[in-house]
Amino acid sequence: SQKIEQNSEALNIQEGKTATLTCNYTNYSPAYLQWYRQDPGRGPVFLLLIRENEKEKRKERLKVTFDTTLKQSLFHITASQPADSATYLCALEGTNAGKSTFGDGTTLTVKP
Amino acid sequence: GEEVAQTPKHLVRGEGQKAKLYCAPIKGHSYVFWYQQVLKNEFKFLISFQNENVFDETGMPKERFSAKCLPNSPCSLEIQATKLEDSAVYFCASSQNRINEKLFFGSGTQLSVL
After folding, report:
1. For residue B107, which residues of chain A lie inside 8 Å, CB to CB?
2. Which of A105, B53, B104, B106 could form a disulfide with B6 if both were Cys (CB 3.0 to 4.6 A apart)?
3. How distant, in Å, are the alpha carbons of A90, A99, B12, B20 from that of A33?
């Protein structure tokens, strides 16, 4: 069955360091992969989208990679700040799917 | 509007009662999605609409859950005869084009079944 796994439920890092979050999937051929940020009590907010034929995407301090051979996406936040503390979700969608399938998320805490 | 509006924010029902949740997508968005978030992060897809037509309903429990998106009305998700395990946050999201435009989420409806 299709499965999406995000590394460790929780990740704690020091301010200024780079946070790296992992999204692995099995039995899936996604056409697109997205990353969202969710704060407590709020809905997810879109951050980045990467297509299957793209290797890397950047936006300010964020970088996403997509390796369809390894079936993995890495999400990096450079020069992390306490305000980056949140839960980060990856979501995959196939070409003909009518939905995005979400991972369980990784809760990032950036300590000052 | 420029944001997805979900009402009510909180809903408390006794087991066996009906629950109805509403979602107004962003104006101009053709696709609406409903997700259920149980526990902390587990996100479960329920159903999607393209305008008023069901697009994908593979996640919908057939027996007690129903949903509609009618013209000029908020979309709705209805649960007949709620059960304890229906307690969750229900999120609605909309997108302009399905082909992986980003999803815009509402703030969710917290349903508590007692």
Report:
1. 41-43
2. B106
3. 7, 12, 35, 32
Q: How far is the C-alpha of B104 from the C-alpha of B53, rounded, in Å?
A: 19
- CB A99 to CB B58 under 8 A? yes
A4-30 pLDDT, tens digit each? 899 877 899 999 999 999 999 988 888
Is A97's CB within 8 Å of B56's CB? Answer: yes
d(C-alpha A78, C-alpha B42), whole Å: 27
Q: What is the pLDDT of residues B39-54, one digit of tens each?
A: 766 889 999 999 999 9
Tell me, yes or no, if B103 comes closer than 8 A to chain A by beta carbon.
yes
Closest CA to A19 of A51, A56, A55, A64: A64
Q: Which chain B residues contact residue A107 at CB under 8 A?
A: 40-41
Using the predicted structure, report yes or no on whether residue B99 has a pLDDT greater than 70.
Answer: no
- Verify whether the Cβ–Cβ distance A104 to B108 is below 8 Å: no
Question: What DSSP state is assigned to residue A1?
Answer: -
**Shortest CA distance to A108 belongs to which of A35, A38, A56?**
A38
Under a CB-based contact definition with an 8 Å cutoff, are residues B82 and B113 in contact? yes
List of chain B residues whose C-beta atoms are within 8 Å of the C-beta of residue A2: none
Between chain A and chain B, the number of residue pairs with CB atoms below 8 A apart is 61
